[in-house]
């Protein structure tokens, strides 16, 4: 397996994880309107439920980070006939949003191009569309991904955690072919969406491994989060309580480099995010993006394209599911 040195704390990036087997023109003859069909559905669905905008971004990341961009996260436990599915893992579970919109896009594509477009490609296209709906420029998405036959919920434990150290996060990204800058750039998506109180600075044990972070945390901000969204009196149900990642603009209107401006002030719900503004290896990047939104948007799009190429199935690997929540072998529709 090919590797190249990252030159960041001598962490090797697994470059072989990034596929070169995808194409911008994959559906040119088989489903030429695929991108417009998906964009129309996602735009319509987001008007009804704006929460799918950060939700679909998160789905795409959580899918690609585990076994690769293979739509394994979309396999529902009951229909997949296994309760040990990624979707069921506590890191996913009830917090996942956007599956209905993806199924709506799949249903429309099955009417116009039956058996042609994979759910993995639909998710990659939809992730691009919600980034664009958030306010960033449109970017090109290469396609040709195939859908996996299985979903292993135990693997979802590898997803990044809000109190992970920077070294832990960097190793995880590098194992998937992503650089330290890719990681810092993609974390900017935390400018919108929500997180469980259990994962936030409101959890008193959340910074035990990030002592340098605690000194930067804005204490009045932390107190406000605790009182308004994550009161200590409700700590036993923190798993079900959520707080907006940008409390001042909880309606997705904070998209952009405001994330970097806020973490430089210690205003973030996630300790691992604030760590980016503290560690010498990432602080300069944070400062650069904080004062140049156009630059962040461009490199974010590039990082999303790269993320969408992680450990994909192509050619005769996997299948093209008829419904995104079912493998075809158990699809009775």
Would you spell out the secondary-structure blueprint of this structure?
Blueprint: E1 4-5, E2 12-13, H1 34-48, H2 52-66, H3 77-80, H4 99-112, H5 119-134, H6 166-174, H7 180-186, E3 194-196, H8 211-214, H9 219-228, E4 242-244, H10 258-264, H11 271-276, H12 280-290, H13 293-307
Antiparallel strand pairs: 1-2, 3-4
Helix pairs in contact: 1-4, 1-5, 2-5, 7-12, 7-13, 10-12
Number of domains: 2
SSE order, one letter for each helix or strand: EEHHHHHHHEHHEHHHH
Which CATH architecture of the largest domain? Orthogonal Bundle
Class from helix and strand fractions: mainly alpha
Distance between the termini: 40 Å
Overall residue-averaged pLDDT value: 90
Q: What's the helical proportion of residues?
A: 25-40%
